[in-house]
Fold these 2 entries.
Entry 1:
Amino acid sequence: MVNIHDVAARKRREREAKLSPYRKGCIHVPNNAVDVSQYPLSKLTETERIIVHCDATAIVDLIRKRVYTAQDVLRAFVKVAVAAQDVTNCLSEVLLDEAFLQASKLDRYLEKTGNVIGPLHGLPVSIKDHIKIKGLDTSSGYLGWAYKTVADSDALVVEILRNAGAVLYVKTQTPQTLLSLETDNNVFGKTVNPFNRNLTPGGSSGGEGALIACHGSPMGVGTDIGGSIRIPAAHCGLYGLKGSVARLPHSGLLGSHDGMDAIVGCVGPLARSARDLELFCRVMLDAEPWFSEPPLLEMPWKRDVANGEGLPEKLAIAILFDDGVVAPHPPITQALNKYKQALARAGHDVIEWQAVDHQNGWDLLAKLYLLDGGAEYRETIGTGGDFEVPQTQWLLKHAQGRDPYTPANIFKLNSEREAFRSKALAHWNATQQRTVSGRPVDVILSPVAPTLAPPHNTTSWWGYTSHWNLLDLPGVVFPVERFTATASATYPPLPHSRNDVEKFIHNQWNPTTYDNAPLGLQLVGRRHNEEKLLAMLNVVEKAFKENAL
């Protein structure tokens, strides 16, 4: 039997050994500190502070113009990343020595030729742990995979990033199984939310969320099969994009259920600005990845569409206030109402989205996620001498007491999935009967979750994100504000609970629990219309900025 404590201790010692040469002084954080988001910035010079507050688009422009070198930029983000690890436990693998060698090469190239090597020249990019980087361990939250899954090649997304001039320097924490909207495993432990350590940063790209929120990375790469980019983006006050399947490169990932295609995940960016999402997608698709990854569609990035070309002057927007399963907590409903009023004042056509079959959708999804009844997850955990963390236990209960599905069962489930998608498409098209323009709505504005970042081990409803995975619709999350619990604030009462999950989540509502938690919302577009979705995000954010009361 593997001694799990020995494996975990060794992984953590090795991580610390690679970080410690780059740690610039000790940062004292009081034990009772809840908001630790500013501590990682405390040792920066003024120039470094300016650098880490730039978005990725600005950074590559400043390096190209030789305002900063790639080494200047990397040094600033590494200083913050090391401190962010100290306060949030967001990192897994570390390749800082290699990163500084690469940054030096890039600086010499620019100095010698006067040209950048590619559109991301010198940009530090953080990578979610299960996305392969050649030569690095890829434990992906499993103790049993530690030291046994060293990548022999780069994932396609990593290859494209390297060719574009990006500097890879850290990998980030993921949860056990990867199929979780929190970030906890027995290899490196639990990741916490930098804005409130009592809350989760989300998952499964929670390490990315915490690191970028601390300004320890200008751009990160995550994956999403049920909300794993969008939830951390919302819980950490960031932008995050989940495209439709077969749009962005997805090969070269390590995880359970490799080869399962009943429901498929997507690679996507987390960042500090909407334009950085567009930058990431443009770089990926300008590389023509469909020539390297057969399932990808040959759909070049339409930059003109992403910049708004072809959009109607006034959008038709449907707002989902309640999915019919779990009504959101009051701050989320209040934010949706503020956007409704601002968008209407800006002249956009705003209607309410009528939720259809969200509970049935989740019930179907849970079957598609666990076609084998959870057998592979249990086997991987058991043979590795590991044990199930709380969110893994929650997940596996969805298949408790049933056998793996037979091929005949799976055929039937796939048919149900396609029928579900057809019904949802018809429902979207039917909105033309309720819009002023007489055309179907262009986009749906939705919560990302029924709560702000919840306390650890309590996430219990995925429906506001996973529903769109089931339908294979692209979703983009954007930050709205940071919630502040004030004694004088009043909130409307929550509706009567319709089920046990809603009762549990409604009983969680206490403003002080969520103090300082970021609040984000989500836009959902038509399938394979990522460019139009990002263009509409720009319109929605502009309308709110100019028309909010």
Note: The chain has a mean pLDDT of 97.
Entry 2:
Amino acid sequence: MAGNQQPRVLQALDVARTQWYHFTAIAIAGMGFFTDAYDLFSISLVVDVIGHRYYGYRGGRPPRGVSAAISVIALCGTVPGQLVFGWLGDKMGRKRIYGYTLILMVACSLASGFSFSKRTGKSVVTVLCFFRFWLGVSIGGDYPLSATIMSEYANKRTRGAFIAAVFAMQGFGNLAAGIVGMIASKSFEKASPDDIDYIWRIVLMIGAIPALLTYYWRMQMPETARYTVFVAKNAKQATSDMSRVLGMHIVPNEEEEAALDDELVGEGDDQYGLFSTEFRRRHGIHLIGTTVCWFVLDVTFYSLNLFMQDIFTVVGVLPSPDEPGNQVTRMIRATGLHTAVALGGTLPGYFFAVAFIDRVGRIKIQLLGFTMMTVFTLCLAIPYDQWQKPKNRVGFVIMYGFTFFFANFGPNTTTFILPAEIFPARLRSTCHGISGAVGKVGAILGVLAFSLMDAHFKALLFVLVGCNLVGIVFTLLLPETKGKSLEEITGETEELQPIDDKAAVVNAAQGVHAVSI
């Protein structure tokens, strides 16, 4: 067997029929993303409640700097989280690090709700920001690990749909944040000012529950075969693990097993590092493409998501928090609108991405998404003053929802998928972490801009249009990965003669397969 051929254990993964372990992996990885989205987006729903409770003397709203800090601090944590945990995922293994991110996520979600201090106001917010920073670190770590694990478990025909399905749990987390916020605020609608304090604590703590429930199953997942073969250099272990996962008995003969150990996973000329000339030659342009596209996408996506409530207030869809009235009643209306946008725009976008990602292709969907986001953001920005008329406000919400639809049926999904496919196994998690970290820097800058320039929303919408146009240009630097094996995409090995798909399902009723290697 030539040293540049693809191991048959990886070919078995590439042609494996869709089966229960695929859906198990989606659920296990997806619950982490459910919590990620819930924790990141729920904070925007409770900022005004925190302001009403601790800064009531300011008309029920925290100072602008405090509001910005509460909104952006978790995003700040995601940057080192993606870089560090992404790197550790390549050095120590995806599975080993995967559990640590979940433990930290659950602990910090709960701790955020228990943010207390002997003094109110600034001290409570400081404690809250401390725990939300570390929550952001855990969320950041979950991004590269979940994407890498799912890409390395999936077959090549439906790999995009499986990774997109994991990412789609972000939409359900976003929806759950609105529903939980609405239920919690409705439950305390007639409560005393002191009892209102429970609303934001309950909302923030509930996000830990789904992630905690999947910890056991996350720890039972075997290490991915591609990490075991190409990084841990243990082809026998990879064969054993995947035989169990696939419900197949993969039987290598001794001669070719030795070839796997001695040649395929041996040190070779192609074992280049992240900062090498060879990496820059092969993948440098790809890393620029993934980082820039993720950066400009997150400027738009997080700005419009986290400041949805503020934008709707300026347009007149929501009443101002400075107006007389019950702050909790306003939160009920805000969470209702948040839920409506999630149901009408956010979730359908994820569903379309899952359905079409392996039919249309990643690049075409990303180009379509950036283009349509440009169109709908222009529709929000150009007639901005007209949207503030009462008869036009429903139209504004609809246009807003379409922007999220094409973000998710577009770059919000594909920027997550592509870095998990186009880089070699030994650098895959690291490069995904770098791409995501740069993206979150964009999110931070977008959130800060909307926080500090909230009187200039129209101008900021035109900035988002520019970001989308930049995304279109840099998408052209990326290769299409639809229908290809990871090794074919990255050039790590040449594909062997494909295993016959019909032969791969022989004896399916017994769940036992014999595949000659």
Note: The chain is about 75% helix and 0% strand.
